[in-house]
Amino acid sequence: MRDRILLGLLFVLAAALPFMAEATGTPATTGIATQIVCFAIAAASLNLLIGHGGLVSFGHAAYFGLGAYVVGILWEHFRLNEPLLGVIPGTNQLLITLPLAMLVAGLAATVIGALSLRTSGVQFIMITLAFAQMVFFLFVGLKQYGGDDGLVVRRRNLVPGLDLRDQMQLYWLCLGLLVAWLFVLHRIVGSRFGRVLEGIRQNERRMAATGISTYSYKLVAFIVSGVGCGMAGALMANYLRFVSPDMMSWQRSGDLMVMVILGGMGTLLGPVLGAAGLVGLEYALGGVTEHWQFILGPILLFVVLFARGGLMGLFGFGRRHG
Amino acid sequence: MAELILETHGLMKRFGGLVATDTLSIDVRPGELHALIGPNGAGKTTLIGLLTGEIRPDAGHIVFLGQDISRLSVAARARRGLARSFQIVQVLDDDTALANVALAVQAHAGHSFRFWRNAAEDDALLGPARALLDSVGLGPARWNSRVGDLSHGERKVLELAMSLAAKPRLLLLDEPMAGLGASESLRMTETLRALKGSIPMLLVEHDMDAVFALADRITVMVYGRAIASGSAADIRADPAVQEAYLAEEHG
């Protein structure tokens, strides 16, 4: 009960953030918060794998980037009025681009996951990284879509009834999707599927001996987390009005991992806190020195060493025991 | 004669130059508790690995309930009713005892591609799980304890309850008495005695008191081979067995 009230309160605060930003004369905060929300969707998705499945993927920026590129590429074809591959017309409708981004990311996750999950441990980390690098270089090489320089999406996607040019409305849309996605993940984690995933994290040998073919469960979790990252990427592309291969670089994959670990693996709000923490620190410390990562390092070290459950653990909301 | 539960034919496994399982042929009959004993390094754990599918044989067949399972995965064998306990207990330490058994019940209830309903409040899982915990003697006071905090003996019976959740056709017990105190060991013996007859069991065990108290038939393994097989009295009297054990004590 206490948790529910706290969650409700947090939501009201998050929803009211743009007004507070206006009132305090710092409207740019809404933009930063939108980025945090987008990263939070991606980190929460990755948390399903790392935190609940014990599967450390070091390549999830690829799905984030793919989601973003779906928005970018469809915009480009819409702008040029030239169908993609001569058949698929471009579009600037979010109700098309967003589901498509999730689909494309999910398909990529299906293929990459199916191959990567044949390995485990350090090998799994390296192979997910290798696949993400392949996707990264594929987009660096796609000169048609700007290559290294990326693509500018001059106008945000359209949504009936909303005007995403308004920073606040975009923020609320992203926040709403974050809340919906967190709810979906929460249900998944608590379901029979989630229990199996949790079992795999804790003792895969026991799960096999219990008659569970773990591979297919891991693959489904991998796909779900890829889909979530695709959604996050599509929203981020709308916020930035720009996509580039940098969004799928290994550093971005690392950022997502840091968010999950910093916030608290295997918790509902941990990845959100982690995203807020990392993006917040980047802005706060970035204002002090350009070598802000020099300060970030010790902070991360402190959290990992002294708060084993991440920020969530620090605040007394550790991992739940089933 | 009733169909055999489990039989191996010419099972063979080498690790480099070491022959861990040497053309081994053993079987388990319906309703029987068959104990497997032998000095350290005799290949008992390797055999369990071969039977469960964690280790692939170099040669030979494993027939379970009349079907060759030699090529099946660990999970596929488990789904056919081959349940096991581990020498070193394998349970989910972060979860409660009840959640552990509920998950084992769930695994037996079919696939787990159900993404929405809360499994922690599912009485179809919790009901059988509670009954199983009761049946192995783990009382309600411990049901909601984190498994990592349970005693070694409690973890052993918890694992047994998880194996039973699958309604197994054969139970492979890899040293269920290992690490137990005298009284816990007695309790485990009683628990297994209660199960005897309803579930065929292959018991690998060093605790000879337990073996002689429980086994219908004993097979002695040395260097990957079965050197003797028979009733407790036969085994006690067998000169080859005495030699094998004496050799170990002197060596």
Task: Describe the SSE topology.
The complex is a heterodimer of chains A (322) and B (251).
Chain A: H1 2-23, H2 28-53, H3 61-80, H4 94-116, H5 121-141, E1 151-152, H6 167-190, H7 192-209, H8 214-240, E2 242-243, H9 250-263, H10 270-288, H11 292-306, H12 310-314
Antiparallel strand pairs in A: 1-2
Helix pairs in contact in A: 1-6, 2-6, 2-8, 2-9, 2-10, 3-4, 3-5, 3-8, 4-8, 6-7, 6-8, 7-8, 9-10, 10-11
Chain B: E1 6-15, E2 18-24, E3 27-28, E4 33-37, H1 44-52, E5 59-64, E6 67-68, H2 74-79, E7 82-85, H3 97-108, H4 123-135, H5 152-165, E8 170-174, H6 182-195, E9 201-204, H7 208-214, E10 217-222, E11 225-230, H8 232-237, H9 239-250
Helix pairs in contact in B: 3-4, 3-5, 4-5
Share of residues in strands of chain B: 15-25%
State the CATH topology of the domain at 1-81 and 198-251 in chain B: Rossmann fold
Low-confidence segments of chain A: none
CATH-defined superfamily of the domain at 1-81 and 198-251 in chain B? P-loop containing nucleotide triphosphate hydrolases
Taking the alpha carbons of the first and last residues of chain B, their distance comes to 42 Å
**How much is the radius of gyration of chain A in Å?**
19 Å
Overall pLDDT of chain B, averaged?
93
